[in-house]
Amino acid sequence: NAKKRPDVEFCFYSAQMNQKLQDRMRLEFDLWMALDRDEFFLEYQPIVDARSGRIAAVEALVRWMSPEKGRVMPDAFIPMAEETGIIIPLGGWVLNTACLKLRQWQEAGCRPLRMSVNISGRQFVRGDLCRTVEEVVEQSGVDPALLELELTETCLIKNVDETIAKLCRLKGLNVSIGIDDFGTGYSSLQYLKNFPIDHLKIDRAFIKNVCELPDERAIVDAIIGIAKAMELHVIAEGVESREQAEYLAQRGCDELQGYYYHRPLSEERLLEVLREERMREEAGSVWTGGAG
Ligand code: C2E
Ligand code: MG
Ligand code: MG
Ligand code: MG
């Protein structure tokens, strides 16, 4: 019966929308609970010096151990955490945990490493990031020079004057600031000049085919060139092969991160890797890389 069809469709869509809405509300609820129940944890992906292959830094990457879903990766919950504002307490937790760990490792005799922490747009724009960083640094006793914040291009260009003021305040704490996923957002060269930034991280999308595609190579070369000219430290993410690593090192990329070297590691595994590295160094052998 043609007359009844619109109703049927209406019901169909609304049921579907209800489901979607319910899923979202459920996820939001679960994320608040997760925060409360301490279900988030960090993994640490080493970033190596391009010349020596030595671990120079680690990037803290958040995961969620959900009682129902198991291990959940950040892409599945960071957008929702951003939308709902959960990112503010969650981001604070990440910063605090990363700094406490770094301090603990050093106290246990680990050599100084830098710690990179991802900061989401909303966290930068809305939260009092500077105050949080200040408190975390103070409470953890970590050397702020070892802490680097990774921001994305999109979160920086929204309100340029305010951004510059915020970045300057952060720099005043002696932490360093980098742009993550560089090249995928609004890569304006103007802000590179005006923003007090210390490093650029080339997005892994450009690294993927850097050895095969001349266009990608041109982009990577250009980014490295700009970074050098502006005296910025340049890092490549998503390095998966020896060819890529060699190309990037030869082009003057300072540091490399990717599965070719190490996947994101648990704390235990990271400490093991650092111990192995130290033993190798003490044995005097030179390590040239390899999948970890
Ligand atoms: P990102 O900051 O660009 O982090 C790099 C991502 O690339 C990580 O994914 C890492 O596991 C992955 N990766 C590293 N090496 C390779 C490689 O060689 N090949 C490939 N294909 N992938 C590689 P992950 O851990 O799933 O994180 C995804 C994104 O989630 C991060 O991208 C970051 O934007 C966000 N994120 C992670 N932790 C946090 C956090 O604590 N706070 C915020 N705001 N965002 C976070
Ligand atoms: Mg990052
Ligand atoms: Mg990145
Ligand atoms: Mg990325």
Automatic annotation (TrEMBL):
Domain EAL residue range list: 24-278
Protein name (Swiss-Prot/TrEMBL): EAL domain-containing protein
